[in-house]
Amino acid sequence: MPLLTLLKHAHVYAPDDLGIRDILIAGRQIVAIERDLHLAGNVPMDVIELDGRPTFPGLIDQHVHMAGGGGEGGFHYRTPEISLSHVTAAGVTTAVGVLGTDGVTRSTRELLAKAFALDFEGITTYIYSGAYQVPTRTLTGMPRSDLVLIEKVIGVGEIAIADSRSSHPDENEIAELVSEAYVGGLLAGKAGVVHFHMGDEDDHLDLLIRVAQRTGLPRTTFVPTHLNRNPGLLEASIEWGKRYGMCDITSGIRPDAHDHVSVKPSKAIVKLLDGGVEPHVITMSSDSNGSSPIFDERGKLVAMGIGSIATLWEETVDLIREEHLPISLAVSFATANVARLLKLRHKGRLKAGCDADLIVCDHQFRIERVYAKGRLMVEGGKPVVFGTFEDAGRVPGSPGSKSESGHAGERVERAALGPSSEDEDDFPDRDERQERSRRRHFCC
Fold this sequence. Notes:
It comes from Alicyclobacillus sendaiensis PA2. The chain is α/β, with parallel strands linked by helices. It has helices spanning 84-89, 108-121, 143-149, 171-188, 206-215, 231-243, 265-274, 311-321, 327-332, 336-341, 430-439, and strands spanning 4-13, 17-26, 29-34, 45-49, 54-57, 59-64, 92-97, 124-129, 153-161, 193-198, 222-225, 247-250, 282-285, 291-295, 301-306, 358-361, 367-372, 375-379, 382-383. The longest helix is centred in the middle third of the chain and has 18 residues, at 171-188.
């Protein structure tokens, strides 16, 4: 595969509208964006003619239950891990992993391992340390030391407040937690945010307002999410956004057959803007792979869904097509604004020196191509790179495989991955391998 890729005649939204430009990608970085690029000499290169197709930064989703979530309603409601191709097909090239309600059977270690796996497979990943409860679940015993010592940890969360599933922390507990995150961020040169899950209780953002007033910490430290959960919370968010801090709208929370209360994400963003909230403090995330329980007035679970990462681009497109926001503004809520908040200096923009994370769309804003760290992940609207075990039909013993398990008399081979042809052969020779196999057996 050539190390250079030249995208010709892209309509670049960086997210600012740059008009028609050529984009040169070398390895994982954008090295040039100019009007008419030509490279001298016989340089191996992929040249892709885009004919004016809209081209955007890859989306940054700061709220993904990448290792699964849920559990409300019983063990069978634990949601699955997310797959690489689900992320990239949705135009997301950077994801921040979170835990949620279940900090018992789900762990921050498990979340970190999943983040490493997705990063190896092709996207950029980070995590928040913690879960709903306070004191929260950490890796090292302290949120501050998680931020300082673990590279992928860029904040704390999601911490639940104003929700029946929270631990109902008081003002002192939240002040201490936010201070821990802030100082950890200072020491590590990271964002050090606290990502707050906002529930349905009537006090809305009151607890955060009291803590913000008391501590005087930077307003970017507080990141409440799910603010479109109900009209009352969204209304309270307008004053919060104007005076104190960030406002994160959840693309996966929107009205449906069971949810008659939430505000459609694209309309929620317009309401914040109309209320006087500055655009740069508004972000949008998906809550992907988290459970979406619906409770009646008695607290009984009546329906359960699962968040979709695809909603992040869908709601971005609705901001353009239905709400008639300028394209560059609509795209910024899931790109440049998030990168600025989380101090991801090489993400969220298309410019020389940034990571080559791009979305190429047709003129109806349907995703055609996605590049993550310079690698083509989606082509023709379909994933072309998959996670390690996504093609389950090739794994012997899995449902749908040719050697499906559960049939008497059939031999089922053990699933295994072979060594890369690019790696040195570190497998033992035949005699040593046979000797090892006589000494011990390995099983899962």
